[in-house]
Amino acid sequence: MKRIERQRMFEKLHQESGVSNEEYFIAYKRVKRIKAFYTHFIIYLMVNVGLVLNACFDQNSWGPLVELKSYATAFFWGIGIVAHGMSVFGRELFFGSNWEERKIKEFMNKDKNRTF
Questions:
Q1: Would you state the pLDDT for residue 116?
Q2: How does DSSP classify residue 66?
Q3: What are the φ and ψ backbone dihedral angles of 19, each rounded to 5 degrees?
Q4: Contact 73/51 with Cβ under 8 angstroms?
Q5: Quick check: 70 and 55 in contact, CB under 8 A?
Q6: Does some domain include residue 27?
Q7: Cα(64)–Cα(21) distance, rounded to whole angstroms?
Q8: Dist. CA 35–CA 15, nearest whole Å
Q9: Domain-embedded: residue 1
Q10: What is the domain count for the chain?
Q11: Fewer beta carbons within 10 Å, N or C terminal of the chain?
Q12: What are the 2TM domain coordinates in residue numbering (predicted)?
């Protein structure tokens, strides 16, 4: 997205809902990270399907579909995909947006209810 288009989008959001520049920038960066992950995942799928099909055509059989060595690249690259996905979505997946606040309240309630 071009800078001028981003500026127009920000101005429109600011007028409609009063979004601050900082809030917009944080959301914009998050969208860029999600888009990068989906692009990475699509490339991962295309390359690995291509590698397996290439192995099948090289041997003129479907034998490579059942050989583990055909999936080595997919496995190790898959570890990278999982790590990338966790860096993009993981914080929300495990901790959520208000996890810290909930844990603080929980500990405060435990301390409050504790008697000596």
A1: 53
A2: G
A3: -65, 135
A4: yes
A5: yes
A6: no
A7: 53
A8: 26
A9: no
A10: 1
A11: C
A12: 27-109
What pTM was computed for the model? 0.67
Give pLDDT, residue 77.
95
User: Is 98 part of a structural domain of the chain?
Assistant: yes
Q: Pinpoint the alpha helices (H) of the chain.
A: 3-17, 21-59, 72-85, 91-94, 99-113
Residues constituting the chain: 116
Per the structure, the complete domain to which residue 105 belongs is given by: 34-113
How much is the pLDDT for 92? 67
- Residue 12: predicted pLDDT: 73
pLDDT at position 97: 66
Each residue's pLDDT, cut to its tens digit, for the chain (116 residues) gives 677 777 777 677 677 777 777 877 888 888 999 999 999 999 999 999 998 888 888 887 777 777 777 788 999 999 999 999 998 987 666 666 677 778 787 877 776 676 65
Rounded to whole angstroms, what are the CA distances from 71 to 74, 83, 116? 5, 18, 60
Give me the amino acid identity at 89.
Answer: F
Residue 49 lies in a domain: yes
Report the amino acid identity of residue 22: E
Residue 62 in tokens: 């479907």
